[in-house]
Amino acid sequence: MLIAAAVCPHPPLLVPRLAGGAAPELDSVRTACDRAVAALVAARPDRLLVVGAGGRTARHPGGAAGSLAPYGAPIAVGAGPAVLPLSLTVGRWLVERAGAEPAGFAELAGDARPEECLVVGAELAASAPRVAVLVMGDGSARRGERSPGRFDERAVDFDDAVAAALAGADLATLATLDPVLAEQLMAAGRPAWQALAGAAEGAGLSAERLAYEAPYGVGYFVTLWR
Asked: How high is the pLDDT of residue 73?
């Protein structure tokens, strides 16, 4: 059963060593992520799992590792071959930063159907009596001039709706996010947020917004559910 969840973004620049001189721009988001993940660890779950989007739908064991080398620095996260996508690599880094170790990872294909994401989330929640989930996902990358993608006037409204749904533990809204629109807006977090909706069904969790920012033209959400 799901007892706690944290939603965090996964920009590589969240890692200070990679960010270098730009690290202070994400200080508030980084602090919010640390607070959220610390709360997951403090909940003393039987299993702390990390879910995020990647190139395929797959499960990875707790010992799976990732690398930030493709993003500018030879930073290994975990030991062994780098198999985790960016979302789960940053998730592992956050959990290790909190002094804990993930019990496993769920990777969801970027084009995974909503119903598939909901099922994955429900399976994660049912995997132990007390489950905590770290949900990794960025909002739209088409918000403005600093965005990686071309500006889209729908982007801010989309992110605002996601931020409200996360802050309100609104499972219905998360479950029905349009995957086509999310892809058009380059919102990488959509599959993971829908997995959260599946995991939290019947758990009765309340939510607390810790951050909603877009310092680089990408929506970053940090929310704690417990």
From this structure: 84
